[in-house]
């Protein structure tokens, strides 16, 4: 039956980690995959999470099924984290949140929902974007187009290009926007630019789809959700948000994400949510318990929540310091042209390194970056910063 099945090439980013793991050099550095590592090169287990984990182990509760759309404490807390506790959109019953299998699962469920409700629509993603965006929307039959986003020469956002391309889209087109910490470029919109984009989306009848995988990694929980909060306050009545706790709780493998669909009113929201539940029932039936219990346990306990916010703040501050340190070390090694890295936000930087330079970094130095020149700043540490800076300067 499978004799003629073709071999599909692996994910290039995840493949880098395999190559990194197989590299015997002690000085090797993995700047490929988007994971936050601590000073010791480990994925942190947050203290707030550890405490909930202990409580859960002690209580050893029965493992019944969760509701199809997930743990109510988790979805409620998620909604409040996205929109703010006092959001009218929540009290009006317009926002329905579903626990999903990571942010990726939210993207997929939303893609299926939108394909069903807007069958003729196309989706526009930024150029470049996280490669999985194209894959997920393509998989459910969407035609994926892109809009200008990055100015490679200026190492930043091409805002005029973005506006011009969004203006050209047909009404009803779904527009995928990264809320913050743009993957892969690190180039984000300013508050004033968000206002302009949202006004344009409204004026042109475009459908906003916000992906937020890094809430709290740039400036703060509320600050990084600005695009979502501006949308909530705008005249736009329908949009969706795919969000993820993989990074903000350092719970990558627990697959903790959420889909939030905003409807015009509570009745519409109930109908839409019934569709979301049908999609999930026919897919994985219901989500898993543990990761959601960890997040809900932290967010539902004021002391643990404060501790988590502090730990998230430390991760954010450390990323800023690593950006600054990298820029300084690069300049000290004769490569001052990388100062833009400090202006970029989140885990990633489009470094401007060419494919050939990325190859040299891997072959000569055991430093793994994505072929596009994307580096994960959150994988740097005081231990490898100087080594990375010297190597990047050497190939520049
Ligand atoms: N969206 C973006 C922009 C991402 O970078 C990621 C990365 O992990 C995701 C979604 C998926 O998140 P998750 O790992 O929770 O599925
Ligand atoms: O962009 C990244 O590195 C993260 C992790 O198929 C990731 O978002 C990368 C590729 C992939 C799944 C997750």
From TrEMBL:
InterPro entries: Aminotransferase_I/II_large (IPR004839), Asp_trans (IPR000796), NHTrfase_class1_PyrdxlP-BS (IPR004838), PyrdxlP-dep_Trfase (IPR015424), PyrdxlP-dep_Trfase_major (IPR015421), PyrdxlP-dep_Trfase_small (IPR015422). One of its GO terms (cellular component) is cytosol. Keywords: Aminotransferase, Pyridoxal phosphate, Transferase. Residues 27-391 form the Aminotransferase class I/classII large domain. It comes from the Bacteria. Gene3D superfamilies: Aspartate Aminotransferase, domain 1, Type I PLP-dependent aspartate aminotransferase-like (Major domain). It is an enzyme of class 2 (transferase). GO terms for molecular function: identical protein binding; L-tyrosine-2-oxoglutarate transaminase activity; pyridoxal phosphate binding. Its cofactor is pyridoxal 5'-phosphate. Homodimer. Belongs to the class-I pyridoxal-phosphate-dependent aminotransferase family. This is Aminotransferase.
């Amino acid at each position: 039956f499978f004799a003629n099945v073709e071999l599909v090439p692996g994910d290039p980013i995840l493949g880098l980690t395999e190559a990194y793991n197989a590299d015997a050099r002690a000085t090797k550095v993995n700047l490929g995959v988007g994971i936050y590592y601590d000073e010791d090169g480990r994925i942190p287990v947050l203290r707030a999470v550890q405490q909930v984990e202990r409580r859960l182990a002690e209580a050893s509760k029965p493992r019944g099924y969760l509701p199809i759309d997930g743990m109510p404490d988790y979805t409620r807390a998620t909604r409040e984290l996205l929109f703010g506790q006092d959001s009218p959109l929540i009290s009006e019953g317009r926002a329905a949140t579903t626990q999903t299998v990571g942010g990726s699962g939210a993207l997929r469920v939303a893609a299926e929902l939108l394909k069903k409700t807007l069958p003729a629509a196309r989706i526009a993603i930024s150029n470049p974007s996280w490669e999985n965006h194209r894959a997920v929307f393509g998989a459910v039959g969407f035609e994926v187009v892109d809009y200008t986003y990055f100015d490679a020469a200026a190492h930043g956002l091409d805002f005029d290009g973005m506006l011009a391309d969004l203006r050209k889209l047909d009404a009803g087109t779904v527009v995928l926007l990264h809320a913050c910490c743009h993957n892969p470029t690190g180039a984000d919109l300013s508050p004033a630019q968000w206002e302009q984009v949202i006004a344009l989306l409204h004026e042109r009848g475009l459908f906003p789809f916000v992906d937020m995988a890094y809430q709290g990694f740039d400036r703060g929980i509320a600050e990084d959700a600005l695009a979502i909060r501006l949308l909530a306050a705008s005249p736009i009545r329908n949009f969706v948000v795919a969000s993820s706790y993989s990074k903000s709780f350092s719970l990558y493998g627990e697959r903790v994400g959420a889909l939030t669909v905003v409807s015009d009113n509570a009745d519409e929201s109930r109908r839409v949510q019934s569709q979301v539940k049908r999609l999930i029932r026919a897919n994985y039936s219901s989500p898993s318990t543990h990761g959601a219990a960890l997040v809900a346990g932290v967010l539902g306990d004021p002391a643990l929540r404060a501790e988590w916010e502090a730990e998230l703040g430390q991760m954010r501050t450390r990323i800023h310091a690593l950006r600054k340190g990298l820029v300084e070390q690069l300049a000290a090694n004769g490569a001052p042209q990388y100062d833009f890295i400090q202006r970029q936000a989140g885990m990633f930087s489009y470094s401007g390194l060419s494919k050939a330079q990325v190859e040299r970094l891997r072959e000569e130095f055991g430093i793994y970056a994505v072929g596009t020149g994307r580096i994960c700043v959150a994988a740097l540490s005081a231990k490898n910063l100087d080594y990375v800076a010297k190597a990047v300067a050497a190939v520049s």
